[in-house]
C-alpha cells in the first residue's frame, strides 16, 4: 500500500480558499482511485470527493459541489483538493486515501490528516 501525507490545511476566513495536498509514496499511485473525507469534532466522518485513476471521473458530496475541486498528478504522486468559498461548516480534519470504488464513501486507509479551520 502507499504511504500518505496530507498537508495544506490552516486557518482561513469564510469565503476564502485553501488547497490541500496528499502526497503518496510508491509506484502504484496511478492505479488507485483517490479521495478525501473529513471529520469535524463530535461528528461522523463525511465523504468529500473522489477521483478516478486517470482523472476521467470525479464525484463530490452535495455539500461541497461547485466549491471544491479534486485533481491529481500521477507524475508527482499527489492528489489535491482545491477548496473555494469556504464556510465555517467546512471546519474539520481532512484525510485522503485510496478508494475501492468511485461510489465508495470512505477509503480503505488514510493518512494523519490536515486541519482546516474556517472562521466566520
Low-confidence stretches: none
Overall helicity: under 10%
Oligomer: single chain
Kindly name the structural category.
mainly beta
Average residue-wise pLDDT = 96
Q: What is the tally of helical segments?
A: 0
Largest sheet: 6 strands, mixed
- List the strand order in the largest sheet: 2-10-9-4-5-6
Order of H and E elements: EEEEEEEEEE
Q: Could you characterize what this model shows?
A:
It is a single chain. This protein has strands spanning about 5, 10-15, 20-25, 35-40, 45-50, 60, 70-75, 80-85, 90-100, 115-120. With about 120 residues, it is mostly beta strands. The strands form two sheets. It has a six-stranded mixed beta sheet, with no helix packed on it. A four-stranded antiparallel beta sheet has the order 1-3-8-7, with no helix packed on it. The chain is globular.
Chain-wise SSE layout:
Blueprint: E1 4-7, E2 10-13, E3 18-24, E4 33-39, E5 46-51, E6 58-60, E7 68-73, E8 78-83, E9 92-99, E10 114-119
Parallel strand pairs: 2-10
Antiparallel strand pairs: 1-3, 3-8, 4-5, 4-9, 5-6, 7-8, 9-10
Summarize the structure.
The protein is globular and about 40 Å long. Helix content is 0%, strand content 48%. It is mainly β and 120 residues long.
